[in-house]
Amino acid sequence: MNILFLTDNFPPEVNAPASRTFEHCREWVKAGHRVTVITGVPNFPTGRVYPGYVNRPWQIEWTTGIRVIRVWTYITANQGFDRRIIDYTSYMLAAIGAAPFVRRPDIVVATSPLLFTAMAGCAVGWMKRIPFVFELRDIWPESIKAVGAMGDSAVIRFFERVEMFLYRRADLIVSVTHSFKKRLVERGVEAAKIHVVTNGVDLSRFHPMAKDPELERRLGITGKFVAGYIGTHGMAHSLGTLLQAAAILNRNGNEASVHLLFIGAGAEKENVVAQARSMGLNNVTFVPPVPKEEIARYWALLDAAIIHLRRTELFETVIPSKLFEAMGMGVPVLMGVAGEAAGIVEAEKAGLCFTPEDAEMLAEKLRVLKNDPSLRSQLAANAIAAAPKYSRTKLAARMLTLLEKTGTHPPNQRAFSES
Fold it and tell me: What predicted TM-score, i.e. pTM, was given to this entire model?
């Protein structure tokens, strides 16, 4: 099968959609299929083109057998709604323009969270008369309302109509959570075409390893209990809660050896750093984004991984992908995301849960883990034992089966005028 995949994030970018797409496509190539990815030049989240790349109309590279077509896009940092809309629109138009040069694909897959990539996938499927697969990683635009980036407006209502149109047009919807599927079915989307393939972990990269003493010394955390937040520093993550927990621990001399390590970047990174400075926290360290090939060394430094999102009903439907990386590394999780994500942690006994945006409760859970090494060891062992259930290799094979079945059926060619 010849698979065309549309995504505006791809390695060397290290965010969740880039990793998921690359690892799935790599496995599909291993299985004997041809895969072409249309993406832009790497720039997320800073809006600066990575060294060695140039933002130009067309360039081709190959990685682990995947043909990667990089197209020109308007580039901006991951902040500011208006400029990001221009960014997403430019990718959508460039992807549609590049697709005719991909010869005879059998199926097109477009990944969210943003609708613009899915809109491109829908258009390409219609033009080439091939099935269109919508990989649903987030409920958008509802998620931007949930973080307070925009309220209800004519613009939001327009995108909500586009969203429903895309769900109906898709020949297959691959959701990353069961909660997303339930939500779509409640909104009238046909359940039979929605299948769940959760996020997972590349166990060849994320597995238990010893702490790196040199890296500990460089970061000034030798001998400390280290709890880490790894990932995007955005509005959705409410990282001020973690700083408040650090302040609570900092006031208690017996807990002074608890250190919080933040790794990553995002729209709120500067604000979070400034807040930590204004609070006078000496038990917090910020690290810029780490290359993909290095990130496991930083995971290995952690005695606990903090996963956190704002307290809102929508986020009870998500499962942050870093949960599975923590499990693969054997790092106990402190889960500050209610709903399906917390359910996995509790079912696998891979960590402890706390109420989102409750700094006191987070500080207490940190104390519990710090003072109970046997509990940490048991949680780590449980996480390692559960990780193979979420192996990216197995999940990629599951999604490939869905693509193969979908590719054997005539595509949905209902008129674009249908609303």
Answer: 0.87
d(CA 234, CA 363): 21
The CATH architecture one would assign to domain 213-389 is 3-Layer(aba) Sandwich (3.40)
Strand-pair category, 2-6 with 34-40: parallel
Tell me the pLDDT tens digit for each residue of 359-369.
Answer: 999 999 999 99
**Mean pLDDT for the chain?**
91
Backbone angles phi, psi at 331, to 5 degrees: -105, 120
Pairing of strands 58-63, 66-71: antiparallel
Chain centroid, CA 82 distance in Å: 22
> Over the stretch 48-74, which tens digit does the pLDDT of each residue have?
899 999 999 999 999 999 999 999 999
Q: The domain 2-200+391-407 belongs to what CATH superfamily?
A: Glycogen Phosphorylase B; (3.40.50.2000)
Question: Using 50, 70 and 90 to split pLDDT, how confident is the model at 253?
Answer: low
Burial class (CB in 10 A: 0-12, 13-18, 19+), 277: exposed
Cβ pair 370, 303 in contact under 8 A: yes
d(CA 70, CA 57): 8
Q: Please say whether the beta carbons of 406 and 172 come within 8 A.
A: yes
The pLDDT-based confidence of 142 (bands split at 50, 70, 90) is low
Looking at the chain, the domain(s) classified CATH 3.40.50.2000 span 2-200+391-407, 213-389
